[in-house]
Amino acid sequence: MPINMWAEILFLKFLIPFLDSGYSTTQSPQATQSPQANESPLATQDSTAPRGSTLTQGHMATRMSPVTSTLETTPFQNFSGYQIGVGRADCTGQVADITLMGYGKSGQYARGILTRLYSRAFIMAEPDGSNRMVFVSIDIGMVSQRLRLEVLNRLQMKYGSLYRKDNVILSGTHTHSGPAGYFQYTLFVIASEGYTNRTFEYMVTGIVQSIEIAHTNMKRGRILINKGNVDGAQINRSPYSYLQNPQSERARYSSNTDKEMIVLKMVDLNGDDLGLISWFAVHPVSMNNSNHLVNSDNMGYASYLFEQEKNKGYLPGEGPYVAAFASSNLGDVSPNTLGPHCINTGESCDNPNSSCPIGGPNMCIAMGPGQDMFDSTQIIGWIIYQKAKELYASASQEVTGPLASAHQWVNMTDVTVWLNSTHTAKTCKPALGYSFAAGTIDGVGGLNFSQGAMEENPFWDTIRNQLLGSPSEEIKECHKPKPILLHTGEMSRPNPWHPEIVDVQIITVGSLAITALPGEFTTMSGRRFREAVQEFASYGMQNMTVVTSGLCNVYTHYITTYEEYQAQRYEAASTIYGPHTLSAYFFFFRALAKAIATDSVANLSSGPEPPFFKQLITNLIANIVDKAPTGKTFGDVLQPLEPKYRVVRLTKRSWNSSETHHTFLTVEKYEATSQTWQIVHNDASWETRFYWHKGLLGQSNATIQWHIPETAQPGSYRIRYLGHYRKQDFLRPAVILSFESTSSTFEVVTT
């Protein structure tokens, strides 16, 4: 890699503090070579290829015969519900030697696992199967454009035209504790220290598999909808931005956050439970940027609780019932309900710049409501779960009516919007402002940038200009009053730094409209957006419920209102297409709503197809061969267990955990009647924690913890460890070998 490219990467790593973003790739996702072989941190010249149904890259040249649906058939006139299928599949990927996605904090690498990550798919079809839609909620930071394109391609190879870009929505829950490495635009690649094919492949495979399971399990059923307010689970983390909105508008609402939760309850014709989709606006950042364990955060914990309740007798991640807690307009919404305080003095730092008298913005951090981040995750997740449970139980309004979908690709960098009958404005090429580098009260930047910055800094401008070039006057004028830190729309080496082509999409299920938002809308942006999309009513579709589903299909950072943009806090500095971004989305989504309402979707143009880059920066994190110390073998117990426990901690000789596994651990109870060991917990259980401690020269340890719950039955237990280690002989490619290890038996007692 050229020296100047290394300098750019180091510079950007310092400037990307709380990215809420993603990553990139260098080879066909299904490449069969060893994951470690032939990977080098090399950026090559820009190379793109359109992604369509005729793609012939690598393994995709072999087309599978389309699979037809196996719907239960019934006369349309005798059945008013839908064909419904639900599916869940693991998409965890690496749990070590990879950056965690979300905070953009240097050194925040995965070092173990708290909970597994899942893709949860829901298919809804009209009774005769003529129209259908797919909604997938995935325990990842957000959906990257590359991820969506590859998922659609694999669905097309297997199912033909059944599942398409217009009727499939992929939505990220926005956990900040999932693996990075799956984006294709350069800013996100640098933030994640390169692309990793293994994690990308696990994500794609998990998403597709969840859809396949839902497709296979489709049955006749009904959908019920309910709504209600959630209290005690959120605060607005940029209240001074929110106050920039007109007072008359703010007076219409009782809170500066959206408290409403929308729940879809899915049952079969016998009334037996099938699944749930819930939308609620809150950032999954209860696990803060000191965390190193892969997990699904507060929204994932709500899913965990709901699925455990409905799937009695099943381990986490197993069982037929699927519960998705999906993201919404969470842009300025934090779960850290104790609010921002100076961690060095304890005083409040709830001010326009989120800064402390001593230590500045780096000391201003929001916490709560628990004693630590694990406690807070459980508290917020429990509140969300309890409200969903209440709404689910009382749901009585049935969703009926036809299904429809509309989708376009649009160039967000050159959109003319009408401000009034005489004046227009335009969107901009992407750019990030100075406050982007400040981070938020949920995760500060670390370089003493502050939120609300309205002026450029000569020091940082000089460094940027030397390494990356200077922003043009055109882009600076377009983004005013944002002082531009990174003019990403004018940077294309080795590939474009931000997307230009963006998905806009709506799916309707009867009177429900699910809008796929390609980023993080703030509270007021979401409210205005829902009103704008009520274009349905103008064409006869009355009383539509509009859902703002966040982090869908492609990631474009944040979308604030025009007024919030003027304050230039973090969310505004991260509104990459300029002050009129929200108005541009109004225009596009209204057009989709009109097309659905007037049955003219066929007349919509598909728009400019996005690129699929073939040559990108590979993973910069070294994967080394694992070695056991002299006299030790992999799986040796280093710290023996006591005979009796209420809390268990087990340390073993480990391997490099960058490899994935169905589960890394099991907690097993001995059943005397059958004389067998029964698994009671796995690494998807909230009660277990798997820590990987990276050592020198390939020597690492793993610590397995079981936090014994009050519900644990007294008896004999053991912990089993399922691992891999990387071995490489001279002049041979690296291979991954598996091993198992079992603890001694111990007793769990009640007192």
TrEMBL record:
Pfam families: Ceramidase_alk, Ceramidse_alk_C. Residues 1-21 form the signal peptide. This is Neutral ceramidase. Residues 589-748 form the Neutral/alkaline non-lysosomal ceramidase C-terminal domain. Transmembrane segments: none annotated. Zn(2+) binds at H174, H283, E520, Y558. Residues 25-37 have a biased composition (Low complexity). The active site is at S334 (nucleophile). GO terms for biological process: ceramide biosynthetic process; ceramide catabolic process; long-chain fatty acid biosynthetic process; sphingosine biosynthetic process. Binds 1 zinc ion per subunit. Its EC number is 3.5.1.23. The keyword Kinase does not apply. The gene is ASAH2. Residues 38-60 have a biased composition (Polar residues). It comes from the Eukaryota.
